[in-house]
Specification:
Structural class: alpha/beta
Distance between the termini: 55 Å
Shape: globular
Strand content: 15-25%
Length: about 600
């Protein structure tokens, strides 16, 4: 099987992007994942004490309060939603990206679920799915929480060998394997196994007959220093020499941020300039790309668009980092730097497609549009010696929106089977670069959906506190949710909600005192119930202010029953001015 796959694999220059996750939604998964974040940041020199991103909350512009400085153009979506995966893969393909390297640590970590979900969709579109192996996750206590017996470095190293074997069997030999110059390749982020431990791992892995040893690109991101206000990169590392001895090839990651906070960069502890970023790349050019060392079987360039990790502050370590995007100039300068050496390079690695939390995503956003995808397309086409066609960049979003409109109409008991088949065809046309035909077919599908919408009846309902049955203790001009606070709906409305599809929102104000979680729950028929019964969760941030809350209500998750409350609120939080809004849809 492997030899057949190798024959069909491409052997030209490749472009890959790091993929960060997992991000969820209440509607699809019953949780939020990396979209939300709460952390203590008192260690920061900026004076910012906490991070508090409540992704269940929707602001005045209709955007969720996500842990990021930029908002996805497609909105807050679930990484496990096949429609969203399709959108991301087709968007990447339109920019001439060949595959995603999923940040992955071990199985059965949640990122392995993401990996397999990605592979399933990628197989339809001739797209590659690899891994950025963050084996540090394995050497933390994360694996021990799942398997208590894996509680020492020795047992973790043995389990790492099983994980490597899993990657060989499930990632590097499949139809979506990332292949460069006929060899499977992955990025080794670390910082888990030592070189000696990794040598043991390699000795335990068995490759299928005919399979070449996977090529490993090793993260090299030593910090460097400032001298006379000039960034000086690290050019030699004993640790890296040990990894090179194991066949790993030094490859760039996010450039160092060695400049300390100043007046112009008061919101961050450290930052880098565009000049620093390019200086960071010089050791890779001089000692790797220009080298004749036969061990460097695959040489990879590197590009990233900038960075603002205000969404996580070093994942709770309280350190804010910044690298400017400069309206796309930083990203373009990195591509130009690499393209000056393109004859020495076999692939490009982009960090990242989707790390919103650290603020170095290239996926289209409200703030930046598809600027980074246009830059990627321009230089990826140059790298591969192909023609850049920008007509495809906007089409995956159009397809995604049509998918969601069709699925919405299905809730009204309309038959959209033929529509889905046509949308599947559109996906193939976009993947194949047949953009004009895809546009024509989508225009026809849009007309069909609009015609179906003309048969739809819309009824608006808005309930104030006096319209609802609220049971709870009054306090400070509102209700205390310290004991259960419940909300019941009028029977007539319950019947209407049960019979028809709807979009609903719960509105209220809450007193932002302390650092307490406020849960809004309902009965649910979806499993696991512990997840799907959570309508929303708000973490307070001790500002002492009354804050507005707007939380979306998903019919599939919520049981609207007679003679029973629909919503329950619990937490040491005071709420007031409760109201509900529903838009109810039926067929005329």
């Amino acid at each position: 099987m492997f030899s057949v796959l190798c024959l069909s694999a491409q052997n030209g220059k490749k472009v890959y992007a790091d993929f960060h996750g997992v991000r969820y939604t209440r509607q699809h998964d019953g949780k939020l994942g990396r979209w939300e974040m709460y952390a203590n940041t008192e260690k920061s020199s900026t004076g910012r004490k906490t991070l508090c991103y409540n992704a269940d909350l929707i602001g005045d512009e209709g955007r969720h309060e996500i842990a990021a400085v930029a908002y996805p153009l497609v909105g807050m979506q679930s990484n496990l939603d096949p429609d969203y995966i399709e959108y991301q893969i087709l968007s990447a393909k339109a920019a001439k990206i060949d595959g995603f390297f999923i940040e992955w640590g071990f199985f059965p970590h949640e990122n392995d679920i993401l990996l397999r979900a990605m592979q399933k969709v990628a197989e339809k579109y001739d797209f590659e799915i690899g891994v950025n192996w963050c084996d540090g996750w394995l050497y933390y206590d994360w694996i021990t929480k799942i398997y208590p017996e894996i509680n020492s470095r020795e047992t973790k190293t043995e389990y790492m060998a099983k994980c490597y074997q899993y990657l060989v069997d499930s990632v590097f030999t499949g139809s979506t394997a990332p292949i460069v110059k006929g060899m499977p390749v992955f990025y080794h982020f670390g910082p888990g196994a030592t070189a000696d431990e990794y040598r043991k791992v390699l000795s335990m892995v068995k490759l299928p007959q005919g399979m070449k040893q996977p090529v490993t690109l090793r993260r090299w991101a030593d910090w460097g220093k400032l001298e006379n206000n000039q960034y000086v990169p690290v050019t030699y590392s004993e640790k890296m020499e040990a990894w090179k001895a194991l066949g790993e090839i030094p490859t760039a990651w996010l450039p160092a941020r060695v400049r300390a906070r100043d007046q112009e960069h008061a919101k961050w502890d450290n930052y880098a300039t565009q000049e620093d970023i390019l200086a960071f790349m010089t050791p890779f050019r001089d000692s790797i790309w220009h080298s004749n060392n036969p061990m460097y079987t695959i040489k990879s360039g590197f590009a990233m668009p900038g960075m603002d990790n205000s969404g996580c502050a070093g994942w709770g370590r309280g350190h804010f980092f910044y690298m400017p995007r400069n309206n796309g100039e930083t990203y373009e300068s990195m591509w130009k730097y690499c393209m000056a050496e393109k004859d020495s390079l076999d692939m490009m690695f982009i960090a990242s497609w989707s790390d919103y939390t650290e603020g170095h995503e290239i996926e289209p956003t409200v703030e930046n549009g598809d600027r980074e995808l246009r830059i990627t397309l321009k230089y990826a086409a140059e790298f591969k010696g192909e023609t850049a066609d920008e007509r495809g960049l906007a089409l995956p979003l159009m397809l995604f929106q049509l998918r969601k409109e069709a699925r919405f109409m299905e809730h009204l008991k309309m038959d959209f089977t033929a529509c889905h088949r046509s949308l599947d065809k559109v996906g193939q046309l976009i993947s194949q670069g047949r953009y004009p035909i895809a546009i024509g077919l989508m225009n026809q599908i849009q007309k069909d959906i609009q015609q179906a919408k003309s048969m739809m009846k819309v009824d608006m309902k808005r309930l104030r506190e006096s319209d609802m049955g609220i049971k709870g203790k009054r306090k400070s001009g509102g209700y205390s949710a310290k004991q259960n606070l419940s909300i019941s709906l009028p029977k007539e409305l319950v019947g209407q909600l049960q019979r028809n599809h709807y979009v609903g929102y719960l509105y209220f104000e809450y007193l932002d005192n302390g650092n307490e979680p406020l849960f809004i729950r309902s009965s649910t028929t979806r499993t696991p119930k512990e997840l799907f019964k959570i309508v929303g969760r708000i973490r307070t941030d001790n500002t002492g202010e009354w804050k507005k809350a707007k939380i979306e209500l998903y019919k599939d998750n919520i049981v609207n029953g007679f003679n029973m409350p629909t919503f329950y609120m619990k937490g040491n939080v005071i709420v007031r001015n409760l109201s509900l809004g529903y838009t109810i849809y039926s067929v005329k």
